Amino acid sequence: MAYTCHHLDKFVFANIDLAEEQLETKKKALIILAGASSSGKSFLSHSLKHALETNGHRCLIISLDQYNVGLSGIIPNKVNLHRFDNQLPNLKEIKEKIHDIIVDIPFEQKYGEEAIGKIKEAISPLIASEDLADFLDGLKEEWGHLNFDEPTVYDLKEAGQDIQSLFKEKKVKAKSYSKIVSERIPSQEIWDGKDYDVLIVEGIYALNHVFLDELKGINPVKNYIEGNPKTLFLRRIVRDKQTTSASSAFTVKLYFNYIMDSYRETILPTRDAANIIFVNDFSFGELRTGEMFTSRDTLPIQNEGAAEELKKRSRILNVSYQKDYYFSVPDEKLENQNLLRFRELSFDGGKTFVPGSLVHKGAPKFRSDNKIIRPINILLDEEEIKEVWKTNDEAIFTFLDHGFMISGAEQKIKTRFVYQGQVFTLYDVKGKQSYLEITGCTNEAVLEEIRSLILKNNA
Fold this sequence. Notes:
By secondary structure, this protein is of the alpha/beta class. It has helices at residues 8-22, 41-54, 71-84, 91-102, 113-123, 129-144, 156-167, 209-213, 229-243, 248-267, 304-312, 384-388, 392-400, 444-458, and strands at 3-5, 29-35, 59-63, 171-173, 177-178, 183-184, 190-192, 198-202, 221-226, 276-279, 292-296, 298-301, 315-328, 339-346, 354-361, 372-380, 405-419, 422-429, 434-437. The model has no long low-confidence stretch (mean pLDDT 92).
């Protein structure tokens, strides 16, 4: 039965203990980390490496991402499988031609019409004329439902063979893959098996039978890293936005349409092979990171009289209507530090609403002045979200169908106005206390006046 833990120290020491047990009878130990995309395998690999080296071991981390065959391989390979029963001749040369054409093309255009035209011209001498149209149609079809989280994306046999060579203390040329161009790139690095006594291999398919079959004679420490649906979603979307050239809209559609299904069908079943299962949900450190910080200084308004008096004395700039839904997952500790918010917007006075944005808000900074300053990641802005969901129900049902639940909802009327030359925002929250955002006001006299007005009407 697998050992399940939630604490990093326990996870690290369990791996050290089992690796050192291997080293009692062998020159090398192998530690494998598998699990869902964005479960934290890379971070945990480096944590293990640091701990092992502190204990006197010499470690090498190998990521199966380095064995990604690239878009010039993934798409043609699937066409060959699905349309030509893996019998297409000259496939190696065809993929080389495709690679040269698409390697420097922006992500969304790699198999667009212009690229397909260039591919057609380049591969015509390599493929039978009666098969050419079918092959090109296949490229467009497979590109339409690209999924990076399938076993065929990685050359697992090649990875296993490299591990065997390193265990035999041979030299291996390191593999390198770029998420920017989505292709293998040249590497001058050489791994020498003699330099290491512990190898750490991480990847979503590190417990896949194809990879494990190549490790005959090696008895690895097998880890499975898991996280709840909210953790996995946030890590994946935030990470890809920072490290790949794909748009957030593309990544979100890919995640819900293909990645989650692949996870359930091809990754989750490998959990049964693990010796150690580590539950790695969002850490506080992750909740303090974001692409920007928002700062909000507010005053509570306890009755409608104060709000109405403010509006009378001010010049209204605009009024907008919002509906906010907050998503959580079962057994999640509900707190105001990990907010995944889907916003609907109305442009006709609150009669109809359309998808507006999807954002994540993390843990606020500790402050003594009551200002709320917190990190925020805009996952989908007002334009991007239209590419993913056409209606609000479609968006909400997508989350509900993938393990999320609605933990809260708010309806707001947001009024921006000018008072004594200063801009303020009033939030009327249906069924709750409203508040005035005073962030940005630098005139202390105006602030004191507006505070007095609110206090007078609140009394």
